[in-house]
Write a structure and sequence with these properties.
- The structure is a single chain.
- The protein has 516 residues and is mainly β.
- Strands 2, 3, 5, 13, 14, 15, 16, 17, 18, 19, 23 and 24 form a 12-stranded mixed β-sheet that branches. A 6-stranded mixed β-sheet has the order 25-22-20-28-30-29, with no helix packed on it. A 5-stranded antiparallel β-sheet has the order 10-9-8-7-11, with no helix packed on it.
- It is built from 5 helices and 31 strands.
- The longest helix has 9 residues.
Length: 516
């Protein structure tokens, strides 16, 4: 019998099966680098809802580790976290395993985790205000009627006609109030460590928003751009180092398949039919919603950058994002810490360029054989993205609004979409269609020998001359008239380029052979 004593002593001295848990509630510092939605068209706006872009998030946290094996919990990670991408560095014993804790705390999960356990039901008498508590055992889950067993029998929650709620003695094991990443580590000794958690997360996006203001000379404009970052996660990143990456990143992984967001199950409450159970009285209807509080005088109203006056805009711009190269991509770094709020957007200045020369071009493109109608050309502002042309910086894609001063008012004259432009490129910003320039393409003589004679007439109703470009979308082998073949090419199209005088017109004749 004595030979078993040493073994029993070893078993008694062994640690409990459960590992000690160390919880890091929040990071000491965090950086967020946002990549655009790769499936969003260039110049497209950020769509509301769950965003299609993603971010690289890096957090520094200070933790106190016990000696031996323990579970380290990182609370407050993004709910769109791609757990397989998580890298933890700085742990003395490294990472043994990691786990994405997806069981989030909610009324339904709290109820489900307490199934079969004792709770307290707290009720308030409407007439007297007296509060009473009864012990109960939860006998059904969150789907359908929540059945409670009390000393008086079985009943459904909130079917007494009295205000009532469940009071829990504690949170069931495995539930967390915030999205959490858990890792198992082994530390050679009890010590404090600074660790870095880096991971990819879905639910982010960013875009540029340009505001152009035409100067009085009608030949130059002031160009301002906002960098708009959006976060559709339920977590905020306070005082973060923020960066946005422009360009097309080669992405081969399906982030949506790897990053299934934690879901909190809904809580459905329904009552037994009248006359069954302990209480058969249906609950009273909910009270009407409270009236909205009146707006106080002087309350700040948030406006978009497109509506801000230039003086207000420049006074709001204390910093401008700086541009850096990231391989063939461009990185825009915000030089001060900012808060990327949950389910919100953040705007910072991207660029400020004054007195940028531009030309107003009226442009029309047409397939050969689509003649015989009156057409309306598009209006575009043409700039050269060169330092000598007042720009000379990469221009990320985004929305653009153009304003012009008319008298003492600044009015919107057009909106358009800007694609990505590299330094040295021509920038054609389409801002709308013209009602002052009309193009009539007509077959003005009867066809002879299978040939059609066409005439293009461009009429300018403006009080100033207009630069017009008509692009023929035609195959070189389609039997084109030599007059079309001799035209210069613009953006790959044979283009008739002409200056139409004020309140005047210009014509272009060509001949096409009918197809057999």
């Amino acid at each position: 019998m004595r030979r078993w004593l040493p073994l029993l002593s070893i078993v008694a001295a062994s640690p409990a099966a459960a590992q000690p848990a160390v919880t890091s509630l929040a990071p000491d510092s965090v950086s967020v680098s946002v990549f655009r939605d790769p499936d969003r068209d260039e110049g497209g706006a950020i769509e509301p809802g769950w965003l299609g872009g993603f971010a690289l998030i890096s957090e520094k946290r200070t933790v106190d580790l016990p000696a031996g094996e323990s579970t380290l919990r990182f609370e407050g990670v993004a709910e769109g976290m791609i757990a397989v991408s998580a890298i933890v560095t700085g742990l003395p014993g490294g990472v043994v395993q990691k786990n994405r804790d997806a069981a989030l705390l909610s009324p339904a999960s709290l109820l489900d985790g307490s199934l079969g356990n004792r709770v307290h039901v707290r009720r308030t008498d409407r007439a007297t205000g007296k509060v009473t508590e009864d012990e109960a055992i939860i006998r059904s889950g969150p789907q359908g009627a929540v059945v409670l067993q009390t000393a008086a029998g079985f009943e459904s929650l909130r079917c007494t006609g009295l205000p009532e709620t469940i009071v829990y003695d504690g949170v069931p094991a495995g539930l967390t109030a915030k999205p959490t990443l858990s890792v198992t580590t082994r530390s050679p000794a009890a010590q404090r460590a600074t660790v870095t958690l880096t991971y990819l997360s879905t639910g982010f996006d960013w875009a540029s928003n340009y505001v152009a203001r035409v100067r009085d000379d009608g030949k130059t404009l002031d160009l301002f751009a906002w960098l708009t970052v959006a976060n559709s996660n339920g977590e905020s990143f306070a005082d973060a180092g923020l960066a946005a990456i422009a360009g097309t990143l080669n992405k081969v992984s399906d982030f949506d398949a790897l990053a299934e967001r934690p879901r909190t199950p809904p809580l459905h409450l329904s009552c037994f039919p009248v006359g069954s159970g302990r209480y058969g009285v249906p609950p009273p209807p909910p009270p009407p919603p409270p009236m909205a509080a009146p707006m106080e005088e002087g309350m700040d109203i948030v406006v978009t950058g497109a509506r801000m006056k230039r003086a207000e805009m420049l006074s709001a711009v204390s910093v401008v994002a700086s541009q850096e190269d990231l391989g063939d991509l461009k990185l825009y770094r915000v030089p001060i810490p900012v808060t990327v709020a949950a389910n919100g957007q953040k705007q910072v200045a991207l660029l400020v360029k004054d007195r940028v020369p531009f030309r107003t071009i009226y442009r029309l493109r047409m397939d050969v054989g689509d003649e015989g109608r009156v057409l309306t050309p598009e209006i575009l502002l043409r700039m050269q993205n060169k330092y000598a042309g007042g720009l000379g910086v990469p221009l990320p894609s985004g929305q653009a609004a153009v304003f012009e001063q008319i008298g003492d008012q600044e009015l919107l004259v057009g909106e358009g979409a800007m694609r990505d432009h590299a330094v040295g490129e021509k920038v054609d910003l389409v801002i709308g269609e013209s009602s002052q320039i009309l193009v009539d393409v007509e077959n003005y003589v009867e066809p002879k020998n299978g040939q059609h004679d066409y005439r293009i007439t461009v009429t300018n109703a403006n009080r100033h001359a207009a630069d017009f470009e008509f692009g023929f979308d035609a195959d070189d082998n389609a039997g084109l008239d030599p007059r079309i073949r001799k035209l210069p090419r613009r953006d790959g199209l044979l283009t008739w380029v002409v200056r139409v005088p004020a309140n005047g017109s210009k014509t272009f004749h060509y001949r096409m052979k009918a197809e057999d």
